[in-house]
Amino acid sequence: MQRRTSTLEDVAREAGVSQQTVSRVLNRPDVVSERTRNRVIHAMQALHYVPNRSAQLLAGKSAPSIGLITASLTLHAPSQIAAAIKSYAGAHQLEVVIAMPVMVDYASLQARLNEFRAQNIRGAIINLPLESSLAEKLVSENPDICCLFLDISPETDVCCVRFNHLDGCGACVSHLWELGHRDFGLLAGPESSVSARMRLSSWRETLHRHGVSNAVTVFGDWSAASGWHKAFELLHQHSRISAIVVANDQMALGVLSALAQLHRTGSRAVSVTGYDDTADSLYFQPPLTTVAQDFNKLGKRAVELLIQKMAAPQIRIRELLPTHLIIRQSTWPYGQQNQNEQESVIAQLKTLVEKL
């Protein structure tokens, strides 16, 4: 016998509330007290209730949704974060409306928030590198929309969950220093990017602690093509560079390609580190030493914290997620390749002598 589908009336009866309250939990959860909302949610779970989205839309109602304003999903990190946000929002019976503004300025971002408002969306995750003044202005001028930011500087006075760049960047430089490298090239992201500037600042701070002040810096645009071109620029400026620290894995791929083309192997080899630990970085040639960020965890926490913020708009949320260095074969001790070459030559000579 087929089981009868639970209705909104069944949920209301189970939770001991009105059907209107159940509807509010589905469409405007921020206007329902946390205690009542939890009671309704538990009733939905107990009855395996599935909202009829088609009926809601035909009735002129929008499905419960949150907004995501993000950088281009052609880039690895934004696409992975967006996928995690959609997955965990779905687990909370929330749709995700995604906006990718071409310009990252006040007018463009405000227009996106206005679109969310028109769709009755009262919570937005903003995954763009924003200046403090811009992020704070968006919050102050949109008090009816709870905003959670993922890519801002530490001093910005807004709700956020973000990665701790300092740990990962410092670990990269210290790892190379311990391997004996003293001549560094730094390939940063765009100067307009807040996250790129934070990574660059962390590299320089760690180098300064080790007494290095002559590192050469160039700026890319996050792409592999940019990494390829900027590797030539770095080595043209300082041919004795033995280690290049790169702001993301895609640019690091371009750097490795350029080094291979320049035949920078053996005694002329250059160590390379990336940032992000993309799925493909393990299969670069050589496999890339990089900084891992758990994008799945960031997406999960972003959804959870935004739901909390929508339920209690007055709470202040500031959460920092860890990063850690993954060491692979793209970094090696300074001079080791030269030593290996010498040992190989000696071994070949010994073989020739034995044959004589």
CATH level 3 topology of the largest domain: Rossmann fold
Largest sheet entry? 4 strands, parallel
How far apart the termini lie comes to 90 Å
Helix count equals 13
Which architecture name of the largest domain does CATH use?
A: 3-Layer(aba) Sandwich
User: How large is the share of residues in beta strands?
Assistant: 5-15%
The CATH superfamily of the largest domain appears as: Response regulator
Total count of strands = 12
Shape: elongated
Please compute the radius of gyration using only Cα atoms.
Answer: 26 Å
CATH class annotation of the largest domain: Alpha Beta
Number of domains: 3
Percent of residues in helical segments? 40-55%
Overall average residue pLDDT: 86
Keywords: DNA-binding, Transcription, Transcription regulation
Domain HTH lacI-type: 6-60
InterPro entries: HTH_LacI (IPR000843), LacI/GalR-like_sensor (IPR046335), Lambda_DNA-bd_dom_sf (IPR010982), Peripla_BP_I (IPR028082)
Protein name: Lactose operon repressor
